[in-house]
Amino acid sequence: xxxxxxxxxxxxxxxxxxxxxxxxxxxxxxxxxxxxxxxxxxxxxxxxxxxxxxxxxxxxxxxxxxxxxxxxxxxxxxxxxxxxxxxxxxxxxxxxxxxxxxxxxxxxxxxxxxxxxxxxxxxxxxxxxxxxxxxxxxxxxxxxxxxxxxxxxxxxxxxxxxxxxxxxxxxxxxxxxxxxxxxxxxxxxxxxxxxxxxxxxxxxxxxxxxxxxxxxxxxxxxxxxxxxxxxxxxxxxxxxxxxxxxxxxxxxxxxxxxxxxxxxxxxxxxxxxxxxxxxxxxxxx
Length: 285
Prior knowledge:
Part of the binding-protein-dependent transport system for phosphate; probably responsible for the translocation of the substrate across the membrane. Belongs to the binding-protein-dependent transport system permease family. CysTW subfamily. It holds the Pfam family BPD_transp_1. By secondary structure, the protein is mostly helical. The protein contains 11 helices and 2 strands. A hairpin with a 6-residue loop joins strand 1 (about 50) and strand 2 (about 60). Helix 4 (about 100-110) packs across helix 6. The protein is globular.
């Protein structure tokens, strides 16, 4: 009897997840139809207009899609050189030692810090530093936001990658050492092939974290509704434009903001699907 009850609970739990996802897609689609009917789906996606004047309203998502993708993938490029060495340090080179435990604890602590704290630190410390180094004339911009995003996702990628590295069977590594392989060769030919799909999935999760980040990016990106032409210029992401203007929006503007939310949902879903496909292919190889 208990097994039947437990099985029913599992089935109900499995049904709830698709229902929640479908409900989110349905509500976003319904509330964004006004913008798509007014401007057309593709015209809305590829337009860089954002005119809020009554009677002359024109809305397009391209500047915010560009800002989102720029900050996310720039943050990922800055994240990899730091997160992967940390994962190897805690998961392979000093596994089980106090220094690895300490570094792992600090990494987990950084992952748990609220994003608003990163935003405040970036606003009061990083902006001034970037201005002094002439990285950004006003301190805020695409580069500043991406740098803070990179710091935010390093703990996620490093912690998850370390766990996958620890899961590599010791027998395989010991066999490689017995054949005369060096530590670097073991990592390149044993650890990475075995843990590669898991490490890749860790970075996919890190991308998801960066795509949806709101508060820290809102405080540092400059919040201008324009196409960013360089990394030093200000801009907006899909999340930051919604956070900035949703409270005072109504009518066509509100529908456009919800449409941007729907596009952000779809972009995140597409990236995750591509990631899963690549992970499956890597496992087959």
